User: Fold these one by one.
Assistant:
Number 1:
Amino acid sequence: MDFSEISEELAEIEGQINDIFRALSNGFQKLEKIKDPNRRSRQLEELTDKMRECKRLIKEFERVMKEVESRNTQDANKKLNEKKQSMIKELNSYVALKKQHANSLENKRVDLFDGPGGGDGVGDEKVMLASTMTNQQLMDTGHQMMDETDQAIERSKKVVEDTVNVGAETAAALNAQTEQMNRIVNELDSIHFSIKKASQLVKEIGRSVATDRCIMALLFLIVIGVIAIIIVKIVNPHNKDIRDIPGFAPPVSRKLLWDPNGG
């Protein structure tokens, strides 16, 4: 039946499901040829992911089927229902095959179609081949597995959300620490600039003090020289080798124009 006549979306979903079934068939054939346990385990995980995607598409197929049910004829709805049951039956056959391979590998991890208790939701003695199950049993088993998978996905989502929250809090703390470090660096730069300016000021003061000392020493020498010259002139006023200092020259004898004794 061409589902595109009923709904383009149904036809697209059916095509995707058929592609996954072909991939599962090829994958399990490849799995039979793999001898290394680690590679078999990785291959089995990839197939489990494909079954998870197939389960999601079957639920989407069922949802769209219910939306267009009122517009379809009874015969079309019957064919849609038969197609859905056929897809569930085929998926369950791959689920059973996957369980057999998992048991042979003694794989203890919780897989997609296991129960929430951590072990196999259905014991080996209770595993029924899809070919021996009625349509109602297939539907019930498929819905049960889908519900268990949804619960596992919800738990995984919660773990992811918690991880994202922790990451956001860590990022906020790192941002705060980064801002604090930036402030500390700016303060250190200011301190370094102040120390540099202070060093320059100290050098200028040192140069100024050295200059003042030189001037004071020179003035002191000049004063000492002047005092020495004055002392020498006082002690030996007739010393011609030393020039007279203005204001300190000895008195000069003056001849009077009129001598009172001589007339």
Number 2:
Amino acid sequence: MLLLLPPTSLAALPRHDPVPGGVAVIDLGPEDHPPAVRYGEKRVLVLPRDGRWYAVVGLGLQEKPGPRTLEVRVEGGTPRRVTFEIGHREYETQRLTLKNRRMVNPYKKDLDRIARERKRILSALRHWQERPLSDLTFFRPAEGPLSSRFGLRRYFNDQPRKPHSGLDIAAPRGTPVVAPLDGTVIEAGDFFFNGRTLFLDHGQGLVTMYCHLEEMSVRPGDRVRAGEPIGRVGSSGRVTGPHLHWSVSLNGVMVNPELFLDAE
């Protein structure tokens, strides 16, 4: 059960963009207690605003357009269903050339390492912490132009790979990286593709990931405040140059980080 949190008129919500890779912000109406919401088998983040409760639902890139349903339960109340619609989104194509062919076609020993690391990564991205949230106003994690946006259909050396699951911020090596929101470091390591990477848990299935770092200034178990430095931009892992790859996972799926920078 989530802790009761008094509704506030100051809460910022991410931009409502109910498409594959987007976020659906669903008005659940006024309630005396925080609703418990599920999307399929997954728990969903809820927070109050202006005396009402809102569900903030992450929609994976694999979603298809069409109607969807949330299951809403409130202490002492009758379970109900809330429907919403997922729209269509076509993402652009990006072609990248890597000199290190091993980063495109890994060796057998690399594949074993990648499989082990994938379990750690998925465990972190799907982590759930019961924590009341009152605001989703994000700091930008690093200063610099956006070099690759979320959702791009990617080709490495003309070979198709998974869509881009984050937002790339081009910045010189050593540029500070800060936490966009209060959170806890739940995982850190040097991964084959992602390089030096940190994971922050912000509560209720909202997890952020920071890849290709030059250095990490925090470690698992550390609590960080919004705007606090957590590392520096680098070029570790599979990269074409220094940059920060920043991902946002919501109820276990990657969503467009820009929706949280546009919080209203």
Number 3:
Amino acid sequence: MKRIVQKFLGRKVPTRRPEPPALPPQIEEIRQGALKGQHLQIVQWGQVLLDSVYVPRDPVAALDWFTIAANAGFGPGHNMRGRCFQFGWGCEKDLQLAARCYEAAAAAGDEWGRYNLGILTMRGIGMETDLARALDLFRTAVNNGHAKSMNLYARFLEEGWVVPQDRGAALDWYRKSAEGGDYRGQHNHATALVDAGKIDEALGWWRQAVVDATSDILLAMDQKLTALGPKGDADLLERVRERLKEMGISPSGAAVSVSNSPKG
């Protein structure tokens, strides 16, 4: 008996593949909806595959899911296909194809697709620059309540790009963009408030913007907050600089501004 036990203990136990960790309920609900063919959940599941801590990143599979939604005529599916082709997520970059995807999204009533097409058109990415067409795209999105487009519509009015310059109307649209949750609109609205001497109100908008702001806006915020000195918010300035460090960017109080050029 002892020899039998020793022989058994000496055998290699076959290794079992570990079970994949269970997804959080809200993510599993999205996955199940996608498997059932629900268009919104199909796009959301593709976004999970693009950038989620819960599953391995799989941009090729994400593009496949977005294509399923796009083939069903779902605007956000077209828009996310456009993002994939614009940035090379799961495919080779193809700016012309990205533009066609955004056009299809806009035609299906997706305001993010309309906005993204406006960006390509304004900056001449994958096509010739056409400010008049870009303005029309942003204005349509604005009329449909798209906050990020409101910020760019305001910029057209402020700078007088293909429209009569109207800085008063521009400030009003920056405010609406800020109220709609766009961090660029929040920064631009805060800047206007500082110019009007409403520093406390401006700081409130910058405290909202710092959460999602990209590096160019953070650098501009760093400049503005530094210039305010003791009238500003030292904790907010530190948060701005922490976010820049997280991005691998050296914070600086030197003059750095957000480009006013249509191609910037």
Number 4:
Amino acid sequence: YNEDLYIVGQTPSLVDTFDDKMYTNYILATNNIPIPKNQLITNEDYNNLSLDLKFPLVLKPIRGRGSQGVTKINNHKDLLGRLHAMFSNNTYGTAVYIEEFLIGKEITITVMPKGNYMVNGKELFYDRPWCLPAVERYNHDNGIAPYNGTVAVMENSKVLSDVELQSNEILEVYEHCVKSAEIIDIKPPIRIDCRSNSTGKYYLFDLNMKPNMTGPSRSHRNNQDSLSLLSARKIGWNYIDLLSNILNQKWNSVSIDN
């Protein structure tokens, strides 16, 4: 990279690597970060599939956008039908995966990179990635959060209460998210979707390297806060504050070398 060129964003190679959800799951699991149990399925073996997981399950593309292609599966017949349709259309390639369906609360956490930030008029330095307040997702469609291109996130999402944000379960999952961001060495924000099991323990199930950063930038888009902006408002940021703080994390080849 030219040292005079500053970048706001991930390197394309990093995005390409961690957009592979099975690879990401492998990296997280090997670093003792809790993820749901999962299993790879290919178009060559799905007719003779031996399942290691119990229903209900969630069927997912290995590379996907939001919840597109994500389906809750309740039985073996349903699974085979969905797999046949996906592989016949070749919509998501020659392999997909399934993971256990967690019955608890779903949250999403925006993780900011380490660096200097302005928060409530004060300049703060974070020497590790850090989490914006967790946002709960609700009003699911058959157990799956609808794609935000269909339903605005402001209609099915809210920041957790102050009491919930200080719970041991949330503080624990924050640490797992920060550790994940450190492993990847993030440059701009990422967003991590998490869901709890029946005992309240959270598992990381989707790591988004390029989260949506929309906001109410025009009069007819007043309900278009992104999940990250919903979270940012909790610490006193408006849309411009969020974007300005993201821009402050710009980097170049010199900062990588150092």
